[in-house]
Amino acid sequence: MSAVEKRSVSIRGHRTSYSLEKPFNDELIALAAARNVTLAALIAEIDEGRPRESNLSSALRIYVLEQVKSARR
């Protein structure tokens, strides 16, 4: 099992951090590359759309899961 790693990113002019396991972070990087956007831009987009009661790390995991499930269809 992959350990959770804390990472930092600048979005909309401020630094924020998120914690993800390496497989989730690797997939997030791949999804950003596939969309031809920076990782920070993708994270900002996900952050903007997440419910305020959800934390950023959870929103990132759910986004990755939804994208992987969509690709299987």
What does this structure look like?
The relative contact order is 0.16. The protein has 73 residues and is an alpha+beta fold. Strands 1-2 form a two-stranded antiparallel ribbon. It has one domain. The chain has helices at 22-34, 39-49, 56-72, and strands at residues 4-11, 14-21. The chain contains three helices and two strands, in the order ββααα. A hairpin with a 2-residue loop joins strand 1 (4-11) and strand 2. The model has no long low-confidence stretch (mean pLDDT 95). Helix 1 (22-34) packs across helix 3.
Topology:
Elements: E1 4-11, E2 14-21, H1 22-34, H2 39-49, H3 56-72
Antiparallel strand pairs: 1-2
Helix pairs in contact: 1-3
In short:
With 73 residues, the protein is α+β, with helices and mostly antiparallel strands. It has helices at residues 22-34, 39-49, 56-72; strands spanning 4-11, 14-21.
First and last CA, distance: 27 Å
What oligomeric state do these chains adopt? single chain
**Counting H and I runs of at least 4 residues, what is the number of helices?**
3
Radius of gyration: 12 Å
Assign an overall shape.
globular
Average predicted local confidence, pLDDT? 95
Major β-sheet annotation: 2 strands, antiparallel
Structural class: alpha+beta
- Contiguous low-pLDDT stretches (5 residues minimum) are none
The SSE order reads EEHHH
Q: How many domain units?
A: 1
What's the total count of β strands? 2
Helix coverage percent: 55-70%
Major beta sheet, strand line-up: 1-2
Could you tell me the strand content as a percent range? 15-25%
